[in-house]
Amino acid sequence: MNRVEINGKTFEVSVPEADIKLRVKELAQRLSQDLEGQNPLFVAILNGSFIFAADLMREMTIPCEISFVKLASYQGTASTGTVQEVIGLNEDITGRTVVIVEDIVESGLTIQKMKEQAAALHAGTVKVCTLFFKPKLLREGTAPDYVAFEIPNAFIVGYGLDYDGKGRQLREVYSLIDK
After folding, report:
1. Torsion over CA: 5, 11, 17, 23 (sign)
2. Model-level pTM?
3. Interatomic CA distance for residues 16 and 28, integer angstroms
4. Is the separation of the CB atoms in 119 and 126 below 8 Å?
5. String of b and e for 52-79 (b: at least 16 CB within 10 Å)?
6. I want to staple 171 with a disulfide (CB 3.0 to 4.6 A). Which of 17, 117, 118, 178 is the partner?
């Protein structure tokens, strides 16, 4: 299925499932190598990163743990410009290596908030791993440490990313083609 319609908008495949699987495996190999001996805690940001985080964890070859937080910053196809914490981090991360797992990094507001929270909780090292990165939109914070795909400024759905709660289940990633 090359095109899908969600809430009256048309999306077209932009990243095939096979490409996603390959890049997730490559990221896990790199993370496993870089973080060997550290027992990192992966902190996945819900809802969008849940599929990416699950697939990434299955490919990890070193001991590691995972936890989840829920942050919200989108309405429809646009960012609100603010990040609201819905479910926070409950683990003791003092001195630990923390890897923030994001579905997509655009402005950097969400990862900046997570980095600040990790610092306040006395994390050792904090890294950011994202499936998608829009470097031209980065306003705050730093670029992610681990990136599967750099993409242009297009609205995307699938593989955990949604449009008004729909489309997360799609195995491929689709870009909006009509506005």
Report:
1. negative
2. 0.88
3. 19
4. yes
5. bbebbeeebeeebebebbebebbeeeee
6. 17
